Amino acid sequence: MGIHKKTFKAIFIFIVLVFIQSSLFSLNVNIRSFDHADYTRLVLEGDRSFEFNVETRERSLEIKLTSATNHEEQLIPVRNSKLINGVYHKKAPSGSTYTVMMNSGFEIKNNFVLERPYRVVFDLAKSVKPVPQSTLPQPPAIESEQEIPEQDDEPEQQNSQNQNFAINTICIDAGHGGSDNGSVGKTGLLEKDVTLKISKKLKEVIEGRLGLRVVMTRSNDSEVSLNSRVALANNQKAQLFVSIHINSSYRKAARGTATYYVSLKATDQESFELAQKENQSDKELEEAAENDELKMILWNMAQTDYIRESSVLAESIQTECNSLMNTLNRGVKQAPFRVLMRAAMPAVLVEIAFISNPMEEEKLKNEEFINKVVLAIYNGIAKFIRYHDQTYK
Question: 70, 117, 182, 340: which has the highest count of C-beta atoms within 10 A?
């Protein structure tokens, strides 16, 4: 009889604790969206799992949560979307409702749930069926000072508070390309081919697991100048820039992985020589005075604002590479890489293994090793995003 009493007491305490937790700790949900060529992805990310159901209208999508959220009733603007006007959040006694307001008729192409963190993903596309204009929900007016100004590739014209927003866009830079082969292995393996393969796989993993928008500086064997790479990232309002490279050395025994972030002074002579080699691959460098370019970084406040976060991102990626790739840890270093200069966001460059080392060249041909590289960089990025979003939420 005593056992039954203890069991009943334990169950009762558990139920009370669950009730208290659900009552005191309301659900935190972040909403983001980005456009693909033929659909718009909407992501609801919670700090824990939640139950929901969906109802569709002609020009709106209602997502009803059975858990209470910590948001007040508000309009959440969605900027620069080709389909979504905004999301209106309304609290209800039984939970919360997010009404996604569209600028046209639409259909749900895909809907799925991801874990760690918990995300509900909707892929939405415009419907071919015409919808009467009168059915369009009218969101509350947004004050003009809330608008984000247009920007170009100059970091000083970027929104200086960009780092205070949750990360939703990442730029992946596949090093070299076109007539610029990068380093070449003993068996003829080209750096430009390996970096592109890794970058494409990394894009797929980030989009699939995090539901974020990923832009690439190149998606094929094309030549892109170093200045154009960071300009693309700035113009696309990317909030992270990750450049993928393969290392090389005259010393055949040199091996391992290192992650860099920008600095006027290199950590060591080897880092300085590596930056010089990477910078010389750009034809534009011959037309610019290098010292003037370096001085420009000091004047450019946009980059210096991101140095600390770049170091955190570099450390996060390097730690994951050490854990998964089973290569020598060459550490986190600084060097004046031109491709990282004037980036208005945290920016790092990953040098993955040595193509000049016959053993590591063979690894770079191995699909299993490439997948480990992709997973390591992804894990590092995901850890940094959690750190960033918790810091600035």
Answer: 340
